[in-house]
Amino acid sequence: MIVNQTYEIDSCDDVELELKRESKLEFRLCFDDEKVIQTLFFIIPGCGGDADSNYREHLASFVAENFNVAVVSVNYHCIGNRPQTGAKAYFDEIDTLIINEHLKVFKLNHKIPSKTMDIETMHKEFMAFDELIQAQKDAGKIAQNYILKFPISFIPTKNEYQNFGIMQAQDLINALLYIKANPPFSLRRGGDLRVIMLGSSHGGYLAHLTAKIAPYLVDAVIDNSSYAKFSWHYIGFGKEIDFISIKYREVNPIIGKNTYIYPFSKTLWTSNQHSKNFFSPTRRQIRNILEPHHLKIQSKYPKPYYVSYHSLYDTIIAPPQEKAELYKILKDLNFNARLRMICSADEIDGKFIKNLSHGMGMSLKTLILKELPLMLENLKQNPKQQWDNTSISYPCEDTIYHFSQKEAKIVLECEELKK
């Protein structure tokens, strides 16, 4: 019988910004209680439709029914940063500043809401701006081709914020360690649970980052369209860098007749070099998967299997040349790593691969059916390497990031390098 269990546990604080976390970590475990479980299979949602809870539950049940695995679905830190996952909208200080400048230029009188808005209210506000501009166009005071472009922020559920990567990967590891310490299912005799992580886009990125932080825990990564380096689009403060063209927008704009709204997630990171929250080169390095000297450090630990699918035309969100370079380095370091670059429309079959844009419209169920049996066979043929060292350290520009396993938790310590 398929069993679904939900857990809430304490996870990690924000060590980099020295902030105490307010929220609990929630995750779900799905398994067949008549099977002997050999593997934990993480399905890691990204920022799109695969974050929908009903879809995730259906997919988890399908996998648990068809394979000897327990399926883990983690509501990692800031997963609720889209309207479909519960986020609300608001205008932060930068949003308000940008909009007020537009209003001043055209001598428009409009009061910007100071409270959070549900999606329906946000659309009403959007229409108010649109009608305001149209009235000025009708009066001949604004050029007919003028479009008001402005940002808006999404505040995630649980009053969280976009830390990007580190806390999210720690959440995945802490869920993994909790299950290993408290397994509610029958285990294979004499064998440790193997761990496979699968994700698309940001979910695939987190699978890679988790393997970077805890390579001795992760046995395999199955990925679709993840970025090899952190993405400016999802870090939350792209509007600080370019608020005119909104080059680093997170999602496609909400488009009206006279207005474009560009949504961004709430973040505490900033481009201000004088702030303690500055997203410095160090903080970028630790989040990059494509960081050659970090990959060399990781290669001295048990090596996960990697398989990835990527579109050659995914040039904005996840540059394919970076992904190709990452997988070349992995191979050079003797990782078992396979990258399938989708290069032409001839490879679109309408079922597995539906287009050549970011994510390729890929069916996760088909990806699982295609790659999970191969990964399970690889793990069966290659017993888990005994490994006692449960810590790893990555030197960055001015800080060493120490990750260590202590009492069924992954702990981060940041050590400043002496100048």
Please characterize this protein's 3D structure.
By secondary structure, the chain is α/β, with parallel strands linked by helices. It has 2 domains: 2-83 and 159-230 and 279-416, Alpha/Beta hydrolase fold, catalytic domain (Rossmann fold), CATH 3.40.50.1820; 88-155 and 236-265, no CATH class. 30% of the residues lie in helices and 23% in strands. It is built from 10 helices and 17 strands. The strands form 4 sheets. It has an 8-stranded mixed β-sheet, with helices on both faces. A 4-stranded mixed β-sheet has the order 6-7-12-11, sandwiched between helices. The N and C termini lie far apart (59 Å). The relative contact order is 0.14. The mean pLDDT is 91.
Characterize this entry briefly:
The chain contains 10 helices and 17 strands. With 419 residues, the chain is an alpha/beta fold. Helix 4 crosses helix 5 (202-213).
Write the layout of secondary structure elements.
Elements: E1 2-9, E2 25-32, E3 36-37, E4 39-44, H1 53-66, E5 69-75, E6 88-90, H2 93-105, H3 119-138, E7 148-155, H4 166-181, E8 186-187, E9 194-200, H5 202-213, E10 220-224, H6 238-241, E11 254-255, E12 259-265, H7 281-287, H8 292-298, E13 305-311, H9 320-332, E14 337-342, H10 364-381, E15 391-395, E16 399-405, E17 410-416
Parallel strand pairs: 3-8, 4-5, 4-9, 7-12, 9-10, 10-13, 13-14
Antiparallel strand pairs: 1-2, 2-5, 6-7, 11-12, 15-16, 16-17
